């Protein structure tokens, strides 16, 4: 039997990276992205995880969560996951706390694989050798020419079979942009994401217009907590309805599935309590016979998505693709619409480029 590996050190850092251009969706605009990094060390090895969230998550990692993990066995990922959830009960377990736990849980899985000197994609039990991606961007506010170049590039250069663009509650503007997108991507599937910006009636109208431009996927046409609204859209349109990116715990996914509100469940390991939470969400979707799609953070999602049942694809999100390539060695590159884990590297294969990251540290 293996010996225990007591956790010696837990650390957290935050990095805010300016965007190459202001981004906006149907409800929000932003000009930078913050990544909170967690590091867990045992037996001379360090695992890392991260979450895209507010820098406040760094303080939750430092106190109280570091105290939960220190001197515990690094291999006991399930027990430590439960202990972290209990510890933040009185702070509110969703939002910032869930992001902090997510970063630490990913770091623990990465550490375990590094201690065993195996890739995470192997340790988790692969269901596939590579994962399909879809290009995601097309932000509101981009010129039509810039949007066409971005979406068309994902098809021609990365080999994506799907691309996704943002829409809001302005149906006329959405139609103009969908028409331009269709001209740029040819026969590739077009997906739209309203980020919950529409009313139920507005979403129904937009869905009918979208069908005329070959749109196949409508993400968060209404707020993701409006289960009845999602079910209404699912019943009354031919488009696939997707939601779940704001699921911070298993109850959220269970409610979505019980309400039969979505055709595809989305999960985000940087929010839904790390790789442990993601795998449980994937199992729940599998039990309901519903496909799964990973939300953003493609480099972090790659190993767990190799193991997830019923995976449809990973979101190749412009903002995070750029940031992960800037901050980490080992970030994947697409080929023919797929990304593959590097099986020559232990863990998830990512290593912080400290010198490059330092100038962005909060």
Q: What would your notes on this structure say?
A:
The chain is α/β, with parallel strands linked by helices and 362 residues long. Helix content is 41%, strand content 24%. The protein is built from 13 helices and 14 strands. The strands form three sheets. Strands 4-5-6-7-8-9-10-11 form an eight-stranded parallel β-barrel, surrounded by eight helices. A three-stranded antiparallel sheet has the order 1-2-3. Strands 12-14 form a two-stranded antiparallel sheet. Strand 9, helix 10 and strand 10 form a beta-alpha-beta unit. The longest helix has 21 residues. The mean pLDDT is 97.
Features:
alpha/beta, 13 helices, 362 residues
The helicity comes to: 40-55%
What is the tally of helical segments?
A: 13
Tell me the strand percentage band.
15-25%
State the separation between the terminal residues, measured CA to CA.
Answer: 42 Å
> Can you count the beta strands?
14
Describe the sheet with the most strands. Answer: 8 strands, parallel, barrel
Radius of gyration of CA atoms, rounded to a whole number:
20 Å
Shape: globular
Summed over residues and divided by their number, the pLDDT gives a mean of 97
Strand order of the largest sheet: 4-5-6-7-8-9-10-11
| Structural classification | alpha/beta
**Strand-and-helix sequence, N→C?**
EEEHHHHEHEHEHEHEHEHEHEHEEEH
Runs in which pLDDT lies below 50 for 5 or more consecutive residues are: none
């Amino acid at each position: 039997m293996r010996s225990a590996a007591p956790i010696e050190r837990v650390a957290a850092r935050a990095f805010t990276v300016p965007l190459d251009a202001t981004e906006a969706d149907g409800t929000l605009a932003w000009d930078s992205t913050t990544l909170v990094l967690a590091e867990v060390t045992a037996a001379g090895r360090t695992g890392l995880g991260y979450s895209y969230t507010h820098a406040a998550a760094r303080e939750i990692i430092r106190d109280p969560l570091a105290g939960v993990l220190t001197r515990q066995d690094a291999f006991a990922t399930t027990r430590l996951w439960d202990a972290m959830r209990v510890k933040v009960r009185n702070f509110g377990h969703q939002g910032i706390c869930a992001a902090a736990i997510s970063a630490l849980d990913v770091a623990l899985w990465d550490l375990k694989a590094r201690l065993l000197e195996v890739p995470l994609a192997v340790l988790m039990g692969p269901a596939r050798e590579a994962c399909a991606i879809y290009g995601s961007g097309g932000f509101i506010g981009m010129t039509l020419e810039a949007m066409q170049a971005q979406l068309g590039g994902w098809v021609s250069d990365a080999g994506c079979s799907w691309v996704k663009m943002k829409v809001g509650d302005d149906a006329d503007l959405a139609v103009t942009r969908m028409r331009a997108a269709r001209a740029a991507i040819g026969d590739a599937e077009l997906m739209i994401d309203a980020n919950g910006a529409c009313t139920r009636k507005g979403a129904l109208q937009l869905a009918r217009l979208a069908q005329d431009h070959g749109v196949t996927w409508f993400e968060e046409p209404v707020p993701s907590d409006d289960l009845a609204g999602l079910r209404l859209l699912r019943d009354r349109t031919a488009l696939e309805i997707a939601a779940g990116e704001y699921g911070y715990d298993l109850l959220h996914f269970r409610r979505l599935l019980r309400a039969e509100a979505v055709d595809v469940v989305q999960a985000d390991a940087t929010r839904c309590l790390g790789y442990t939470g993601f795998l449980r969400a994937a199992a729940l979707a599998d039990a309901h016979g519903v496909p799964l799609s990973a939300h953003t953070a493609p480099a972090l999602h790659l190993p767990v998505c190799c193991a997830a049942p019923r995976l449809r694809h990973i979101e190749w999100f412009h903002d995070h693709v750029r940031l992960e390539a800037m901050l980490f060695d080992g970030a994947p590159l697409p080929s023919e619409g797929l990304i593959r884990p590097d099986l020559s590297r232990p863990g998830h294969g990512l290593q912080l480029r400290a010198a490059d990251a330092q100038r962005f540290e909060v």
